[in-house]
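Lab meeting, item 3. Inverse folding demo.
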């Protein structure tokens, strides 16, 4: 099974830089910040790639570089994971560089390039692995994730449309624990049935007008899928399960639009702003419309 777990490993390591990240430019370039940040990023990248190879690829046979078309698997939930991870690494990278006083455009471009570099390295590893292969579909969504961050920062100097993630436990992992995980931590990363990927739209920032709508309240559109015990739909059907897509409409909170003077709270808000807040939601699928009092 080819999941976003490999990409998430790199992402989690890189999130350690969040503590130093700021959402705005420093007044001037600060060498005493820049050098430690770049050094830490280089060490983090090298260590995570080496560790990932030892943990994930070392025990699988390798072969010549080849491509692998997995675009039809998991109802494209894995592609949403690639998009989300690429976006978040690019966001953190750009903001850390802005904190060092790097000129805005350079920080944004290099931040997006860093996100793409992390993701591309893993795809190249896949390309030499007999178990997988280089996926053009994955790379397309990696690029789209980085580009979504890049375009908003360049055009608006802020995020008005924020990719987010939520998760809930499902019973499908018990049916296929080898693919979907047999512990809560594994299921978080591997059970696509429980994952939902969101795009939260900050209404006030998008319309650029003052009205009754709170600055921090977003309208959020989500995508998920259910009934998957195998990557291929026909294999799930053969096992007696019939996957279907789910679309959601809900509200959300843009934590970074909540004003506070507390550095601790700003750091917390920055970190949790990648997660969708549990809220009431409407679900639309091939079976009809379902209302959720609280949806995770």
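The presenter then showed the designed sequence:
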């Amino acid at each position: 099974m080819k999941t976003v777990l490999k990409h998430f490993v790199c992402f989690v390591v890189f999130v350690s830089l969040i503590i130093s990240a700021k959402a705005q430019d420093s007044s001037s370039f600060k060498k005493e910040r820049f050098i430690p940040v770049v050094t830490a990023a280089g060490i983090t990248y090298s260590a995570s790639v080496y560790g990932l190879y030892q943990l994930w690829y070392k025990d699988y046979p390798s072969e010549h570089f080849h491509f692998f078309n997995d675009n039809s698997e998991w109802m494209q939930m894995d592609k949403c994971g690639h998009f989300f991870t690429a976006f978040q690494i690019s966001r953190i990278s750009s903001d850390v560089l802005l904190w060092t006083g790097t000129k805005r455009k350079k920080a944004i471009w290099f931040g997006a390039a860093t996100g793409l570099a992390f993701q591309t390295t893993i795809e190249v590893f896949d390309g030499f692995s007999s178990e997988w292969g280089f996926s053009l579909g994955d790379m397309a969504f990696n690029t789209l994730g980085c580009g979504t961050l890049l375009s908003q920062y360049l055009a608006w100097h802020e995020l008005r449309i924020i990719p987010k993630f939520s998760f809930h436990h499902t019973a499908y992992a018990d049916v296929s624990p080898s693919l979907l995980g047999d512990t809560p931590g594994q299921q978080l990363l591997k059970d696509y049935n429980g994952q939902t990927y969101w795009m939260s739209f900050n209404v006030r920032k998008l319309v650029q007008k003052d009205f009754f709508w709170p600055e921090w309240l977003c309208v959020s559109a989500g995508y998920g899928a259910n009934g998957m015990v195998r990557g291929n739909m026909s294999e799930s059907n053969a096992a007696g399960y019939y996957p279907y897509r789910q679309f959601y409409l809900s509200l959300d909170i843009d934590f970074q639009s909540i004003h506070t003077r507390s550095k601790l709270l700003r750091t917390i808000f920055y970190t949790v702003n990648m997660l969708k807040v549990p809220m009431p939601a409407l679900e639309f699928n091939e079976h009809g419309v379902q209302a959720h009092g609280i949806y995770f």
